[in-house]
Specification:
286 residues; 9 strands; alpha/beta
Length: 286
């Protein structure tokens, strides 16, 4: 609870600040305004925006500088494309290791009945090409950050970074596995779920910007990823989890907070995850 309050206070104090990248790197230009922003009528009432609404789900912990850039950038990007959306920050405030997949499961369950599809979206990946499709993926999951475009990951079965799914398709997969504590491998397991559910995966076509299609904010020298493998985790990380997902997710919402960052609204859901240490003792570092 304390971590959640500190997180919100930091965001509220910082949301009107001009941000630069870690170690002085320049970030895509954004228009900044004082926060909280004034309430104004939304152009999303225009019927030309279409009937669908996207839940942009951000699994999050302590990456405040990136969040301050991401929220206004994505809000402006999606508005230009006339994509109805709400940005949901699922903030992990427990003492366990980071669990990206479980936080996405929470985001799906807490996203409300006003959205009908979701984007599993990393906070450090910004789309720079406006030709990228964020529309309703009716025919099957749409991998925006495809291996041909992602600046770092290029193997054929990669489905991380940014993946769009209808809520129906996400439910067909039983969400993501909750067994992946620490960084990595949850996307690879989810790829197998997509195949098991017999869902066809689609990727962008006609994009000519290659590996410059996205701006990757993350600086590994400044922010180390938790790649430790302890207990049986090293062997378990390559296994399929046939039972786990939405059906065995344990979590508690500590609080919800609507925020405006540079005029862009988002919902922060402070969340405590549960861990059965008899099943996944690697949720805690020894």
């Amino acid at each position: 609870m304390v971590l959640g309050l500190v997180s919100l206070l930091w965001l509220q104090l910082s949301c009107s600040e001009e941000m630069s990248g870690e170690n002085g790197r320049r970030l895509p230009q954004q228009q900044h305004s004082p926060c909280p922003a004034e309430n104004r009528a939304s152009t999303e009432d225009d019927p030309s925006w279409g009937p669908h609404k996207l839940a942009v789900i951000i699994p999050f912990r302590e990456r405040f500088e990136e969040l301050l850039v991401f929220v206004p950038f994505m809000h402006n990007f999606l508005n230009k494309k006339k994509i109805r959306h709400k940005i949901i920050i699922v903030n992990q405030v427990d003492h366990y290791r980071f669990n990206r997949a479980s936080l996405i499961n929470v985001g799906y369950l807490e996203s409300g009945n006003d959205t009908d599809y979701l984007a599993m979206h990393d906070v450090d990946l910004l789309p720079l090409n406006e030709a990228l499709n964020y529309g309703f993926p009716q025919d099957g999951p749409f991998h925006v950050a495809s291996p041909e475009l992602h600046p770092l990951y290029h193997y054929k079965t990669y489905v991380g970074g940014i993946l769009l799914l209808t809520k129906q398709h996400y439910h067909m997969c039983n969400g993501m596995s909750n067994r992946f504590w620490g960084w990595g491998r949850e996307d690879d397991e989810f790829y197998r779920r997509l195949r098991k559910a017999e869902l066809q995966l689609f990727r962008p076509t006609g994009i000519t910007t290659g590996y410059k299609t996205f701006f990757h904010i993350h600086d590994p020298a400044w922010r180390k990823r938790d790649q430790k493998r302890i207990a049986a985790q090293k062997q378990e990380q390559f296994k399929v989890d046939p039972e786990g997902g939405l059906t065995n997710l344990h979590y508690q919402v500590e609080s919800r907070q609507e925020l405006s960052i540079s005029g862009a609204s988002c919902l922060v859901i402070n969340t405590k995850l549960g861990c059965d240490q008899s099943q996944t003792p690697w949720c805690l570092l020894a």
